[in-house]
Amino acid sequence: MSRITRLARHLPLQTALLLAPIAYCAHQIEESAGGFRVWRGRHFPANNPLPGPHVFAILTALGLLSILGFTVRRSRPTAAFALLFFFTTQLHNVVYHVGAGVYFADYSPGTVTAVALYLPINLWLLWQAIREQWVTTMGATALLMVSGGLYWAFETMGPLVIAFGFAVGVMAVAVAEWRPRH
């Protein structure tokens, strides 16, 4: 068994979640250095008026808040919320970069880190969450479907979808966590 495999088996979801913001930083460097905004403007209508650094700061803060929520209150709802956030902002981004790059026959800046970091880290988070019983297989499937819908809504309607989805998610977690138990 390799060291990476041993580490993967012994690193709890709570700690493994921290890899997602690190991957996001690397992804943003690749997109910025490769001119992703210019590339996107050639192929898609503009729907994001926010400057790249603002988007980076907002998504980093929201990602860290989702991890903090799970760290403070380790529960199925907070785990699902953190997973939903990263699947929405990262896992489906892999499909976007690869699919758009192939469709337009034009390299999409961000593809390397999406495939090399987002894909394995998010699949590992999914596997770890199921393994540690934070989500069921059916719950994981639902998270993948909902996150896909949120991601593609973000791509077509803009960044307010993420903010709205985050707010709704926080409210759903609050209801799930603090409702009276009988």
Share of residues in helices: over 70%
What is the rounded Rg? 17 Å
Number of strands: 0
Quote the beta fraction.
under 5%
**Mean pLDDT reading:** 91
Give the helices and strands as they follow along the chain.
HHHHHHHHH
Instruction: Provide a count of the helices.
Output: 9
Low-confidence stretches: none
The description of the largest β-sheet is:
none
Shape descriptor reads: globular
- Helix/strand-derived category reads mainly alpha
* Integer tally of domains: 1
Q: How far apart lie the N and C ends?
A: 46 Å
Strands, helices and their partners?
Elements: H1 3-10, H2 13-16, H3 19-34, H4 36-43, H5 52-72, H6 76-104, H7 111-131, H8 137-157, H9 160-178
Helix pairs in contact: 3-5, 3-7, 5-6, 6-7, 6-8, 6-9, 8-9
Which structural traits does this protein have?
globular
Describe this structure in words.
It is a single chain. By secondary structure, the chain is mainly alpha-helical. It has one domain (15-178). Helix content is 81%, strand content 0%. The longest helix has 29 residues, at 76-104.
